[in-house]
Design a protein that fits this description.
This protein is 64% helix and 0% strand. With 123 residues, the chain is an all-alpha fold. Among the domains are: 41 residues; 41 residues. The longest helix has 45 residues. The radius of gyration is 41 Å and the shape is elongated. The N and C termini lie far apart (120 Å).
Amino acid sequence: MDRGHEKEAFTTISFKCATAKKFRIFSKKMGASNSMTLLLMIEFFESNGISPKESIGPQMQTLESLIKKRINGVIAIMKDIEKNQTKPTVAMMQSLFKEAEPKNKPLLLVKEPKKKKQSILKK
């Protein structure tokens, strides 16, 4: 039984045999009863605001182009943020850190005592 529709009465609708056969095959593929399959189909068309008489092809292409335009818009916004906000901020931070670095003082080198010349020893 269909959940939530157990107490509803059945009614008859007349369809051509070929249409009824196709619909039953479709209902089995959907894994639902004929009533639930028809209800799902009606709700789908109503919620998406489309008609079975309309062609979905151009609408899908229009939707795809709209999504592409919006994605390109988002990419342009991100590039602008990077150019005008992120890079200057990074440059300022780097210059601050360069100024804050302690200046390197030359290290004191310990002078090693001079070795006696070997030539003097040999004489």
